[in-house]
Amino acid sequence: MSCVQHPSQAGSPANDAPRIHGRCPGALRPMISGDGLIVRLRPRLARLARAQILGICEAAERFGAGLIDLTSRANLQLRGVAESAWRALLDKLEPLGLLDDSAELEARRNILIAPDWMPGDDNVRLANELVERLAELPALPAKIGFAIDAGPAPCLQHAAADFRIERDTHGTLIVRADGRPCGVPVAAGQAVSALIALATWFVDSGGPAVGRMARHRAPLPAWAGGEHAPAPARPMLAPGAHPLGVVCTLPFGQIAAARLAQAVSASGAQAVRLTPWRRVLFEGAAMGAWSTLLAPQADHDPLAATGWQIEACAGAPHCPQASVPTRPLALQLMALARRGSLPAAGAGALRVIHVSGCAKRCAYPHAATINIVGRAGAFDLGWQDAPPSCLGLDANEIIARLEIG
Question: Helix axis angle, 86-93 relative to 50-63, nearest 10°?
Answer without folding.
Answer: 170
